[in-house]
Amino acid sequence: MTAQAWTFALVGLTFALYIGVAVWSRAGSTGEFYVAGGRVPPVLNGMATAADWMSAASFISMAGLIAFMGRDGSVYLMGWTGGYVLLALLLAPYLRRFGKFTVPDFVGDRYYSQTARFVAVICAVFVSFTYVAGQMRGVGIVFSRFLEIDIVPGVLIGMGIVFFYAVLGGMKGITYTQVAQYCVLIFAYLVPAIFISLLMTGHVIPQIGFGSTLADGSGTFLLDSLDGLSTELGFDAYTDGRKGLLDVFAITMALMVGTAGLPHVIVRFYTVPRVSAARSSAGWALVFIALLYTSAPAVAAFARTNLLVTVSEASYESVPGWFKNWEATGLITFEDKNGDGRIQYVGDASANELTIDRDIMVLANPEIAGLPNWVIGLVAAGGLAAALSTAAGLLLVISTSVARDLLKKGLRPSITEKQELLTARITAGIAVCIAGYFGIDPPGFVAQVVAFAFGLAAASFFPAIILGIFTRRMNKFGAISGMVSGIVFTAGYIIFFKFISPELNIEAYWLFGISPEGIGALGMLINFVVATVVSHCTPAPPDSIRHLVDAIRRPGS
Amino acid sequence: MNAYWKTNLKYLGILLPIWFTVSLGFGVLLVDQLDTIRLGGFKLGFWFAQQGAIYVFVILIFVYAFLMNRLDAKEKVRQRS
Questions:
Q1: Any CB–CB contact under 8 A between A274 and chain B?
Q2: How far apart are the C-alpha atoms of A74 and A59, rounded to whole Å?
């Protein structure tokens, strides 16, 4: 069977599985629609959280990013996993104990203020939309490359699937579909990783192969060989860093705190039955995430070595089939500058003849390593599972925010549960269409904004929730002014360097040498300071709020 | 402040500094110093940044879940008596 036939078969099979699961687990009440009735076992919730969290970016782009960034790529590995420690220790148990449905619910009730609730709703919807557009784009890329379907019908098929199970099943349908999607995506990620580790180092476990000697009998360690190859061609050594120390620190911090503050991640901890289950569920989620996140840097190093060995000084006439396939998509470009018919892939930009899009490393890896056709089809199905599971989780946050936080708790408190459920479903439907449009025709800013969603979440939600739990004195004035100053500072810094004066976006002009990617860490500090100072100059919150905080801190029921 | 909450804060005071040390400490601030030490084919700082920190994160969450479950159980016994 050809790679394309395998891809059709495996993608079709997994889609049929998701639809089957969705029909079996459809939602009947608002409780089931928003939080799956609060009855999801912690291990399954951990799996669903992992699928929800690991997006097209984690599956498709991350290993490629690391392959090209070397040690600096560690910011994503630590940043996107370290946040779960903060979530499990500082947020999830208390929010579960509080026992409502959404993050704006907590912010609105704790700070006894509709203004605070609306600020939180707007942040949640904004963060979720930027994210979901990126997922739909990922669906489009997989369809167009592997199934040779145009991006438009590709995105439409993806939208149709998500629409079906998100609108029908709500959180309950999404949760159980995500469990299935996790199994597909982790299998699809680990199979090629194990194959390549065996080929290159003779070790079954990629995490060990990563630090072992090459299987070619030379006795050199893989990473030493990669460092040597890289410097020989004029690139920086793979295991050395290039970014400034404070910048790496700030980016890692912003990604960690941002992860803990993302509404679609937090809401997952409302779906477990008990407070103790919220704690262990975060642990399981990180176990399932770590399986992929500790394999990714190994895949990155294998792919980078393979790439350098395969293409460097190779004759263009005799390059393998994968090279031509990806060249046709425009994601690999070759320009024979010195006209010798060979590929010079070197660090010096004026002599370099090859440009490779970082996003293709994971997708092309099985082809580069010459793995069997079914593995290539499997990777395509895995990429789709990652994109669809994240998209569904985000759509749910959007529909919940509108139906519950905006309508039921804000503009029209009189609506019945049936009307609320219908509104949630209609909103999810509209959100799918908007997301699909962004996926087909992405505005240029979407890709850039996704990376900054973390900074914005770090500078807004995180301090407000932490202060709401760990101080009883924090009042609405402090929380609102903190959120507003944090987000205005962070967004202002990003907009200035990315959109107003992109030519100034170099280290010399950055505040303390912190890039726009890491500025959320500073925004978070500003939020904490402003909130604390303002709350001490304004009246204490009412007694009922102090009782609410005491109740959250008591042992779980 | 009650004893239950104080014990919880004490656990956080132990676990969060470990979280900080293995990631932002070993993986970022001290990475070049640790890189002079080798762990098989890895430089130690590089290993913490790309592997070790993540393993420690997983352990930290389960340790906290275990400690808090034990504390919850004790609190239940105390309330009954």
A1: no
A2: 16
